[in-house]
Amino acid sequence: MSLHLGGLAPDLLSAVALAGGFARGGRRTVLCLDVPENVAAEVDAAVSLPPGAVDAPRADAAAAVLREAEAMVAAGAAQIIVADGTPRHGLAALTEALARRLGTGLAVIAPASPGARRTVYQGHLFQDANLPDSESLVRVWSHDAGGAVGLVPFTTVEAGAAAIRRDLARLAEGGRQHAVLDALTAAHLDAIAEAVAAYPLILGSTELAARLAARFPAATMTEAEAWPPAEGAAAILVSATSRTSLAQLGAARARTPLLELDPLAMPDAEAMLAAAEAWLDGVAAERVVVVSTALPPDRLALAQRRFGAAELDARLGAVLRALAVRLRARGVRKFLASGATAASALVGAVGSQRFTVGAELAEGLSWLRGDGDVWLCLSDGEAGGRMLLTEAFEE
């Protein structure tokens, strides 16, 4: 089996989502925290992160991304998908370099994700039917791409795959290097996936990635490859402060041992870690425990004013990482992390450079298996229902 699809993502949770999209589309997928060389023969999709994306970005990240793309192409990838498709600093230049390496004159930009209530209309990105930025994606991308950006509008996308292909060809013939595609519905993404199946470079959503992945013959996973073992202890680390995450914590309080760490009440990180270890000693017989650094909005604002947002995040991340190391030493092999800080701390503590993607615990939330048969589930704090934390490890 050769690599069919390669994926690149700017941060850990974007990479996890993209890898999950590939797996949802039937691909045997690996998430790489290093350059994806010597990818196992039984894997047909790989997603890679730039160096330092889990901890701190490095100055040579752009060059490393090109090396990662080179490795994927060398392994047989016919298509590279860059997660998200919304413009970020320096992405246009990187995209142009990738396009030259892949031998394509046109990069497709399709960030719409109707399932997440994110749509694109007349080149404008909408979230929950709101317009967060008055500038269109075409204009924003044009700032970095020297104006060589075109639009495939709603009327064309609504007309189907053949019309989309014709418009993309017209834009390429006119010298455009990037094409933004409107999309409002799942049917639009179906048409886009059909139309761009032969394009080597796509900047798009996880929903589109899943559709592109599904165009290849489906692979299968055994039960042992898809799910963590039912037996054994598990731990949940929470840093996300979204309404969804706080509701999940509220539901967990009544059913699962829960430790809530508050930096305002305990500002010393070493003291916080010592308190957490003592608490773990007291709940050692429990099968599942939850440790949270998430604060309600009012206390979060106070903590950010007191410590600074970056310092607070670094401080709590260090505590969660040290705690995850201690949990691993206690024999815990199953983890769920909610929030970017908790996810990065957990991945850093586990130490694996590659994870195979398993089944979905909830929509858009896949299991990852690392070295030593350690299983992780990494959420942005928005995935799953209110009972996610209480039901994640039910037998």
UniProtKB/TrEMBL annotation:
Record-linked SUPFAM superfamilies: YgbK-like
Sorted UniProt keywords: ATP-binding, Carbohydrate metabolism, Kinase, Nucleotide-binding, Transferase
Residues of the Four-carbon acid sugar kinase N-terminal domain: 15-206
Keyword Kinase set for record: yes
Residues in Four-carbon acid sugar kinase nucleotide binding domain copies: 236-385
Gene3D superfamilies given in the database record: Four-carbon acid sugar kinase, nucleotide binding domain, Putative sugar-binding, N-terminal domain
One Pfam family, short name: NBD_C
InterPro entries assigned: 4-carb_acid_sugar_kinase_N, 4-carb_acid_sugar_kinase_N_sf, NBD_C, NBD_C_sf
GO MF entries: kinase activity
Membrane-crossing segments per the record: none
Stated family: Belongs to the four-carbon acid sugar kinase family.
Protein name per UniProt: Four-carbon acid sugar kinase family protein
